[in-house]
Design goal:
Layout: E1 5-8, H1 12-21, E2 25-28, H2 34-39, E3 47-50, E4 60-63, E5 66-70, H3 75-80, H4 82-87, H5 89-96, H6 101-106, H7 109-115, H8 122-128, E6 132-135, E7 138-141, H9 142-145, E8 146-148, E9 151-152, E10 160-166, E11 170-177, E12 184-193, E13 196-202, E14 210-211, H10 213-221, H11 225-229, H12 246-264
Parallel strand pairs: 1-3, 2-3
Antiparallel strand pairs: 4-5, 5-10, 6-7, 6-10, 8-9, 11-12, 12-13, 13-14
């Protein structure tokens, strides 16, 4: 790992000021992606600014048909939250599948969404649950927020403050994980919102998280596992690596989608 300066921000204003005064600074959420890339010498920021203890980034609430979660909320806090388990149990379950206890106790929801790792779990939930990503500069609809692998609509000095998820009529998450890293090899989040079904896939798309509109239309006509089980995914749109070919990942999508629909009820 390259040498770097570490600073802990006490407020959003302080965090932005520290970033602007650095040569090449980066905000630090849980560090599960940033620190790993630094250890591999794929990133070398001169400064890392820890935003996890900023009061404005804390808290979980249910208000107006939404579950609103502070960006510095850890995965373990999401998994253990009674409010989330009551309103969106699939989201609490998703958080419990992330990494191991050490990762869940350090990693944050805002950090995951800011990095937009192609194998991350929360992007699938955000896109399926029509989430709004609130930041120091305004708001981003999830549909417009994810712009590609490791790419988002965030500006360099923009900080995620809260994420508001729409409470669905029903939802479920099915994850096929790498047994070593527990990252998603292919996962599907299914939700039924007031405007219809959503089916999102993470861990597999060669452009990051994506919706499967053909499955959504099928579920609109017939909410059942059979409606999605036979819908094929084009392998040309999928990632391929030593853990799974594009064809294998394409095969997994309808299998996991059918399981998620059955789980949602």
């Amino acid at each position: 790992m390259y040498a770097t300066n570490y600073a802990k921000a006490t407020s959003l204003e302080d965090a932005v000021a520290k970033l602007k005064s650095s040569e090449d600074g980066k905000f630090l959420g849980g560090g599960q992606t940033l620190l790993a890339t630094m250890k591999q010498r794929l990133a070398a920021p001169t400064d890392i600014i820890d935003v996890t203890k900023i009061p404005e980034l804390q808290g979980i609430s249910v208000e107006g048909g939404k579950v609103v979660i502070g960006a510095a909320t850890t995965h373990s806090q999401v998994a253990a939250s009674k409010e989330i388990a009551s309103a969106i149990p699939a989201l609490a379950e998703l958080a419990g599948t992330i990494g191991d206890p050490a990762v869940r106790n350090m990693g944050t929801m805002g950090g995951v969404l800011a990095n937009n790792d192609p194998a991350a779990d929360y992007p699938a939930a955000a896109l399926a649950l029509d989430a709004t990503i609130m930041t120091t500069r305004g708001e981003h609809a999830a549909a417009d927020y994810f712009t590609g692998i490791f790419e988002t609509a965030l500006e360099e000095d923009e900080i995620i403050t809260k994420i508001a998820y729409t409470i669905p009529k029903k939802a479920a998450y099915e994850k096929f994980r790498n047994p070593a890293s527990r990252y998603s090899l292919c996962s599907v989040f299914v939700a039924l919102l007031d405007d219809g079904p959503r089916v999102t896939v993470t861990g597999s798309g060669n452009d990051g998280v994506f919706r499967v509109t053909e499955m959504e239309e099928a579920l609109k006509a017939n909410w059942s596992p059979d409606a999605v089980r036979s819908i094929a995914i084009d392998p040309a749109t999928m990632l391929a690596d030593i853990h799974g070919s594009a064809e294998y990942r394409a095969h997994l999508v309808p299998v996991l989608a059918a399981r998620a629909v059955a789980k949602a009820g």
